[in-house]
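Colleagues,

For the teaching module next term, I've prepared a clean inverse folding example: a structure given as tokens, and then the sequence designed for it. I'd like students to try predicting residues themselves before seeing the answer, so please don't circulate the second half yet.
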């Protein structure tokens, strides 16, 4: 097939970061702790976040581990350095930039009635800077950062009260930034709610055994499914509010799309059916948020497990009538599923990997220990599947490659692997567009090195721009441009051609 690599006029080229992994300033200007402030990495600390149940008060309290380095507390200091950082991004020609608003900067506890003006002011300045540099802001409302008070006091999203707190927050930020921000996303990678309930779902276990070493084991399926429903109601209410307030804007969901790129290990029909089942764990969220329905396979699961969530009158209609305008997703790697591991493929535990079965057709992996199978065709598979199923615009919210890189003073970091990754994935995006997928834009994850979310490291560097900070917390935070910066710049300048 002759490749044209044409991208539509007005295609959005940019980069994506998140407040919790870049801003630092974790207790500045009124901000209070949020979920990932008490974790090193959301996978590595998924079982042992820095909170402890106090049987006296019957509440969780913050209890940071003095032996751990919580890099995100200072992160890459984007909170203070965003002006120079955004200039570097604009220097690549990016016409958009995605970040998140830190919920706990606006509502430090989460349940206040009035917002924190210092937090609001910060994002005014941030969005103004983006706009002045020609970059359309793309804003995630919450990216792994539920205010910790809401989790300790209310158990987070398994409690219905969260819907009201979230809506109050949305109402404030939509009114404040509606004239500046046209593209919004509700919950980052909400489909991680079962695998990472604390960080990605903002859920705290309610039945607590303080002696259980494995924190994650305290969650019940019932509370996780209630949290799912509450978040889905909040999503629909947020979409409705958004459409009322900002008719010209677009609001999307954000899904960890790598899980959708799951192939059957063989043509054995049992492998194919196991894969169908595994992929439903990801389709589930867009079936609700993009198609507006609770799918039959979810209802059957509830029935089989006897965990019917509390669904109130009018909520299913609300979900049906308020679907997202576009599907945003991240894509990093693909997976293989066979019938033997199928059932446990994405069960809600943190240790069971999603990459258990090796794909013999994929020979390239990201560096150890992360070992992501590098599969550009998987990105096209996700784009085409989403298009076929929902017929909605798509937006690649994250794609990128983490490498362990060392800076040698006076020398530019050479990163041909990153350039190749970028080019190969973009070729597949172009092919999907040729096939008719309506792709609004492409965002590189972590265009500036930032704190990894999964493992909480600086060592896993995604950036086109190096940031001098290290796993042990050392580093002077200086920025320097890597070779790949110029390649992305060239691609953007030619609109992908
Ligand atoms: C996505 C998240 O899961 O992947 C980001 O939205 C995250 O927050 C990114 O950083 C890459 O994962 P990691 O673990 O390499 O940081």
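(Answer key — instructors only)
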């Amino acid at each position: 097939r002759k490749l044209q690599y044409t991208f539509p006029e007005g295609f959005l080229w940019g980069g994506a970061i998140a407040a919790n992994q870049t801003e630092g300033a974790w207790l500045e200007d009124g901000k209070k702790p949020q979920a990932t402030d008490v974790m090193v990495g959301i996978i590595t600390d998924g079982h042992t976040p820095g909170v402890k149940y106090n049987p006296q008060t019957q509440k969780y309290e913050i209890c940071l581990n003095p032996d751990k380095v919580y890099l995100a507390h200072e992160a890459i200091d984007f909170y203070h350095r965003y002006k120079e950082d955004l200039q570097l991004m604009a220097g690549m020609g990016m016409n958009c930039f995605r970040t998140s608003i830190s919920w706990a900067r606006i509502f430090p506890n989460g349940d206040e009635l009035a917002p924190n003006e210092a937090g609001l002011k910060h994002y005014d300045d941030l969005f103004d800077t983006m706009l002045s540099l020609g970059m359309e802001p793309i804003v995630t409302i919450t990216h792994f950062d539920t205010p910790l008070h809401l989790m300790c006091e209310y158990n987070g999203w398994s409690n219905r009260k969260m819907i009201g707190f979230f809506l109050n927050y949305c109402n404030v930020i939509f009114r404040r930034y509606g004239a500046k921000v046209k593209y919004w996303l509700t919950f980052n990678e909400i489909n991680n709610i079962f695998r990472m309930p604390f960080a990605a779902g903002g859920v705290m276990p309610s039945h607590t055994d303080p002696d259980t070493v494995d924190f994650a084991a305290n969650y019940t399926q019932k509370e996780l499914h209630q949290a799912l429903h509450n978040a889905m109601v909040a999503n629909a209410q947020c979409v409705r509010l958004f459409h009322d307030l900002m008719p010209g804007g677009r609001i999307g969901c954000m899904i960890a799309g790598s899980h959708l790129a799951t192939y059957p290990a063989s043509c054995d029909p049992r492998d194919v059916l196991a894969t169908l089942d595994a992929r439903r764990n990801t389709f589930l969220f867009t079936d609700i948020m993009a198609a507006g329905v609770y799918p039959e396979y979810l209802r059957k699961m509830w029935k089989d497990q006897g965990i019917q969530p509390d669904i109130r009158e009018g909520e299913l209609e609300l979900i049906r009538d308020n679907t997202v305008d576009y599907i945003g997703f991240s894509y990093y790697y693909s997976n293989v599923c066979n019938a033997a591991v199928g059932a446990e493929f994405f069960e809600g535990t943190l240790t069971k990997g999603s990459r258990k079965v090796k794909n013999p057709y994929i020979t390239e992996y990201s560096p150890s220990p992360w070992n992501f199978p590098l599969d550009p065709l998987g990105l096209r598979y996700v784009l085409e599947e989403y298009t076929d199923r929902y017929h909605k615009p798509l937006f690649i919210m994250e794609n990128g490659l983490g490498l362990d890189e060392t800076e040698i003073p006076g020398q530019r970091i050479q990163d041909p692997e990153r350039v190749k990754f970028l080019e190969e994935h973009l070729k597949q995006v172009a092919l999907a567009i040729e096939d008719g997928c309506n792709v609004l834009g492409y965002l590189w994850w972590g265009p500036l090195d930032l704190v990894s979310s999964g493992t909480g490291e600086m060592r896993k560097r995604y950036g086109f721009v190096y940031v001098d900070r290290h796993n042990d917390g050392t580093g002077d935070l200086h920025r320097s441009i890597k070779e790949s910066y110029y390649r992305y710049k060239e691609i953007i300048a030619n609109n992908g051609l």
